Amino acid sequence: MKKYRLFVIGIFSLFLICEPAFAVVKVVVKRPDFTVKYENSGDQVSGGLLIGNSLLLSSTIENPSSGIASAQLSSYGLDGTKQWDLPIKTESVAGPITRDTTGDIYLLGVTPTSAQRISQSAPQPVTINPDNVQVDPVETPSNTLNTLAIWKISNTGTLLQTFSLPMAEGVIPISISYSTSGILVGAFLSKNYFQVNMDENGGFSPPTYLKAPRNIDLTQDFKYGKEKLKFLSTAKSLIGIPTWKPKKPTPVLIQYSKFGSKRAVNSFEGMPLFVFYKSSIGVIVGSESPSGFGISIVKPLN
């Protein structure tokens, strides 16, 4: 009887040890929980920020009648309800977002120089109109996005201040972050990458030219109790799921048990722009798609 009991216990223990190997885990495509629709061909989301249960999205909105685009900051509930909009009412392009310890938000972007006087390399004849009035030199928009802009915004969507840093050529905003030493901005010129620091009064440091950073890698690990969540992009089959064969790099979220076996795998559509995690909510993935910008929320398995 004793030997029989030991035999049963041994078989049961073997079953527990081997169970993960026989568990079938499939890659489930996660559709967006809500989508921010693009109304015009030039519309684009360029940044996101999770604050509590609200998701901020910075975007560039095209005006089809004028052909001019402008930056915009919007706040959404995680059910897709829009809470507020703040359009920037000048020609501009939006970039990433950050916030400080008081809750104020900083939106990075670029604007064109408002107007510039045409320079003449040699004296020109004075132009006289039919009324014998001298014509002033022509001023014309530069149409070059060569001014870094930082818009300081309250957490309720009110524009508080605008800070500007003109550059000698077109500039592309890349990153913005807050620390006790100020706001750090990263941007590209045509041939150089640089960083500048802005203090709380809007004063900018001289640009520091650095080696260009690599493309942003959104691969991240999150701790979920005693388990782990891993977000990555892969073009290869996943270990243990040989039947899943992506044809191109595809973003996936893997939930691992405390023993290291896969419990669940989700894949996502489109090109991800950001990934956030909050234990009470789950993993939030923002991805570009042809119809708009999709927000997918995955609550891990208990």
What is this entry, summarized?
The protein has 302 residues and is mainly β. Helices cover 7% and strands 49% of the residues.
Report the strand count.
23
Secondary structure: helix percent: under 10%
Low-confidence stretches: 1-22, 115-142
Radius of gyration: 26 Å
The helix/strand series, from N terminus to C terminus, equals: HEEEEEEEEEEEEEEEEEEEEEEE
User: What does the overall shape look like?
Assistant: globular
Mean residue pLDDT:
85
How would you describe the overall organization of this protein?
Helix content is 7%, strand content 49%. It has one helix at residues 2-22; strands at residues 27-30, 34-37, 44-51, 54-62, 69-77, 82-87, 93-99, 105-111, 116-117, 139-140, 147-153, 159-166, 172-179, 182-188, 193-198, 208-210, 220-224, 227-234, 250-256, 262-268, 271-278, 282-289, 292-298.
Keywords:
single chain; 302 residues; mainly beta; 5-stranded mixed beta sheet; 4-stranded antiparallel beta sheet; globular; disordered N terminus
Please render the helix and strand layout as text.
Layout: H1 2-22, E1 27-30, E2 34-37, E3 44-51, E4 54-62, E5 69-77, E6 82-87, E7 93-99, E8 105-111, E9 116-117, E10 139-140, E11 147-153, E12 159-166, E13 172-179, E14 182-188, E15 193-198, E16 208-210, E17 220-224, E18 227-234, E19 250-256, E20 262-268, E21 271-278, E22 282-289, E23 292-298
Parallel strand pairs: 1-20
Antiparallel strand pairs: 2-23, 3-4, 4-5, 5-6, 7-8, 8-11, 9-10, 11-12, 13-14, 14-15, 15-16, 17-18, 18-19, 19-20, 21-22, 22-23
